């Protein structure tokens, strides 16, 4: 009898206990922007083995693609591959917006999963130049359906390349940021194609709608004096601030200690910090726009029919492309391209297709998904976060802080990620 | 045709990187102006560095990419494969310790008293307790390393960096820093000749060229940067900016408004 009371009261107290566990979350940086820039302080990042069986795959996904000399160094799609000697499950990982397979956060995930016995293949984001040049059939990035089909094809090519060298027991999938959103679409495609039969899919800090999240990042830059059109002035001002701070402080070199002290000394205001994130987004976007424009010969920032050589100056293209907004890209380049392919396509319909909402039924019903995100991830609106909570009820883990993937390397997050993929394999 | 060793490869790479791949000149379509051009630009340029020889620099950047790809990185990988990590770290330690001489002479020329004393302390500690630099007890004793070179010294005394310059093998530099590199190399060579540690072995030349080669391999081994690894189409500008700014800031100068 007492035991029953005890059990019942314990069950009743459970949410409370969970709540107090939540407040004990030890990731130290409260600000969303600061967390995003600084990531996890080195002392709180778990130590991972430095040696692993590793090589970079260079894949010929599109054998017929002619490459401009300006991309002479691009000899194929580059994927990072870590492999075990023995039979093991294989995880495919998709990088976040504008980054390639060597992105620090992605390599961290590769190492962490390798350390607990997985094979891992990490792919660049479809918004990265390498993917646009070597793996995107349209050369126009940003459409979840087409990008995911290209990703799937790249995964098949990668798998074909390594299948003779490793033994695989089952397949998993994961990604962060835009790569997380793409994972959902890749998983859906896999339900038809059945090449991998992904057992579990982990989405880390996904965007619900690419259009809304792109807009959120644009907003960050609106807060700077003069707005985004004056981002160059803003950048140079921040640089002066940065340099003066260095020369007046007693620093040994520009290193982690120095960068961390910028945060603790609050060198940049919240608006300025936000502006710097917005500018970083623009710089990434510029690479994507330029690569796409060269591949498709659309005459958007590079003159149509111009043959660029590797020694040509790209300086003006760099300045022009960084001054184009996400909305410019959508309205002037992305939508017209798809409208040409599918006459009658409205802009709203195209935007709606770039959202998890378009495959909601599948996401709701499939038990294979897991989501990790943060309460203060600024690429999500309140409505987006509520939506994720509702659709992925019981399969979502929300941390109180960490900004946009700032806490990925924090020990609790790492443990959760690893446990998610291990679950069945390790219980066996 | 038989390949005549590394010089042929080097010559080939130089030719490749300077000419670029020849593109067919015929039936080229007429160019059409793009939708967005620099004419609509009403802002300051950012990440901008004086670079009048950009064409040459880009060719050198490309040359270094090939030099890495076909010569240096394979050699470094071979070195890393046959040498235990423990030994690699000791080798790096020895060369890093020897370069403290450069750090010391330059912080002295910049009249930085505390820094010179720290660097001298590091050199003495690591040469003795650290067994010739194989270990680094000085850092644990609170003597932090301060990298100095003659380029920074010139900058400290007010010499402008001059145009950006990409050097073969060494990579990103400037006119000032190239001069600095030449002076540092000369000073090191002068000290080395004066001391001549292998004079009595009878194989002084062979030994010292072996050491120079090992130093070059170790230098590339310690440097994680790889040309075009980011895959970002504007990598050249980011690297140029970061190099220039880091040098300006660390030599105590403010960026131009």
TrEMBL record, chain A:
Gene Ontology molecular function, alphabetical: hydrolase activity
Record keywords, A-Z: Hydrolase
Hydrolase is among the record's keywords: yes
Highest taxon, organism lineage: Bacteria
Gene Ontology CC annotation, any one: membrane
Residue stretches in coiled coil: none
Protein name: Alpha/beta hydrolase
Native source organism of the sequence: Geomesophilobacter sediminis
UniProtKB/TrEMBL annotation, chain B:
GO terms for cellular component: membrane
One GO BP annotation of this record: intermembrane phospholipid transfer
Keyword Ligase among record annotations: no
Keywords carried by this UniProt record: Lipoprotein, Signal
Signal peptide start-end: 1-22
InterPro entries listed in its UniProt record: MlaA (IPR007428)
PROSITE patterns to which the protein is assigned, alphabetical: PROKAR_LIPOPROTEIN
Domain of life: Bacteria
Similarity-based family: Belongs to the MlaA family.
Name of the protein described by the UniProt record: VacJ family lipoprotein
Organism of origin: Geomesophilobacter sediminis
């Amino acid at each position: 009898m007492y035991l029953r009371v005890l059990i019942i009261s314990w069950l009743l107290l459970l949410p409370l206990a969970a709540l107090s566990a939540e407040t004990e979350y030890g990731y130290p940086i409260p600000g969303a922007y600061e967390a995003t820039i600084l990531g996890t302080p080195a002392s709180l990042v778990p130590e991972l083995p430095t040696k692993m069986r590793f090589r970079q795959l260079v894949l010929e996904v599109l054998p017929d693609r002619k490459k401009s000399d300006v991309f002479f160094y691009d000899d194929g799609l580059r994927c990072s591959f870590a492999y075990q000697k023995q039979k093991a499950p294989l995880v495919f990982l998709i990088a976040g917006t504008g980054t390639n397979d060597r992105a620090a956060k992605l390599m961290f995930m590769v190492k962490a999963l390798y350390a607990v016995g997985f094979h891992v293949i990490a792919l660049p984001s479809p918004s990265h130049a390498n993917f646009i040049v070597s793996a995107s059939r349209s050369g126009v990035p940003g459409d979840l359906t087409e990008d995911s089909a290209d990703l799937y094809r790249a995964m098949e090519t990668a798998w074909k390349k390594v299948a003779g060298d490793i033994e695989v027991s089952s397949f998993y999938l994961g990604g962060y940021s835009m790569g997380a959103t793409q994972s959902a679409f890749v998983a859906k495609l896999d339900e038809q194609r059945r090449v991998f039969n992904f057992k579990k899919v982990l989405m880390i800090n996904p965007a619900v709608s690419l259009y809304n999240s792109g807009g959120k990042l644009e907003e960050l830059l609106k807060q700077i004096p003069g707005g985004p059109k004056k981002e160059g002035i803003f950048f140079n001002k921040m640089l002066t601030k940065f340099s003066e701070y260095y020369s007046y402080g007693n620093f040994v070199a520009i290193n982690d200690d120095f960068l961390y002290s910028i945060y603790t000394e609050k060198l940049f205001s919240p608006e300025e910090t936000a502006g710097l994130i917005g500018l970083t987004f623009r710089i990434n976007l510029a690479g994507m726009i330029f690569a796409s424009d060269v591949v498709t010969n659309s005459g958007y920032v590079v003159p149509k029919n111009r043959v660029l050589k590797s020694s040509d100056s790209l300086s003006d293209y760099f300045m022009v492309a960084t001054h184009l907004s996400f909305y410019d890209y959508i309205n002037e380049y992305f939508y017209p391209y798809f409208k040409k392919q599918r006459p009658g396509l409205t802009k709203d319909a195209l935007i709606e297709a770039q959202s998890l909402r378009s495959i909601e039924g599948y996401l709701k019903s499939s038990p294979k998904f897991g989501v990790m995100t943060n309460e203060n991830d600024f690429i999500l609106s309140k409505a987006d976060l509520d939506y994720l909570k509702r659709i992925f009820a019981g399969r979502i883990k929300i941390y109180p802080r960490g900004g946009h993937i700032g806490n990925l390397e924090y020990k609790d997050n790492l443990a959760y990620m690893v446990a998610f993929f291990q679950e069945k394999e390790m219980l066996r | 045709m038989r390949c005549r060793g590394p010089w042929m490869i080097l010559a080939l790479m130089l030719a490749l990187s300077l000419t670029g791949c020849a593109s067919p000149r015929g039936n080229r379509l007429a160019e059409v102006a793009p939708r967005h051009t620099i004419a609509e630009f009403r802002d300051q340029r950012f990440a901008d560095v004086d670079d009048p020889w950009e064409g040459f620099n880009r060719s050198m950047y490309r040359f270094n990419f090939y030099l890495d790809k076909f010569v240096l990185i394979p050699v470094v990988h071979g070195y890393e494969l046959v040498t235990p990590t423990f030994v690699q770290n000791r080798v790096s330690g020895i060369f890093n310790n020897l370069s403290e001489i450069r750090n010391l002479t330059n912080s002295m020329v910049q009249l930085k008293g505390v820094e010179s004393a720290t660097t001298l302390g590091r050199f003495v500690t690591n040469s003795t307790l650290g067994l010739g630099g194989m270990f680094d007890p000085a850092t644990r004793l609170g003597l932090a390393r301060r990298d100095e070179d003659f380029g920074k010294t010139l900058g400290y005394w007010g010499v402008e960096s001059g145009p950006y310059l990409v050097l073969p093998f060494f990579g990103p530099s400037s006119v000032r820093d190239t001069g600095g590199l030449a002076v540092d190399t000369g000073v090191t060579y002068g000290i080395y000749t004066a001391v001549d540690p292998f004079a009595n072995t009878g194989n002084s030349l062979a030994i010292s060229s072996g050491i120079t080669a090992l130093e070059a391999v170790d230098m590339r081994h310690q440097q994680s940067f790889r040309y075009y690894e980011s895959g970002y189409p504007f990598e050249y500008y980011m690297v140029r900016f970061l190099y220039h700014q880091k040098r300006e800031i660390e030599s105590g100068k403010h960026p131009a408004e």
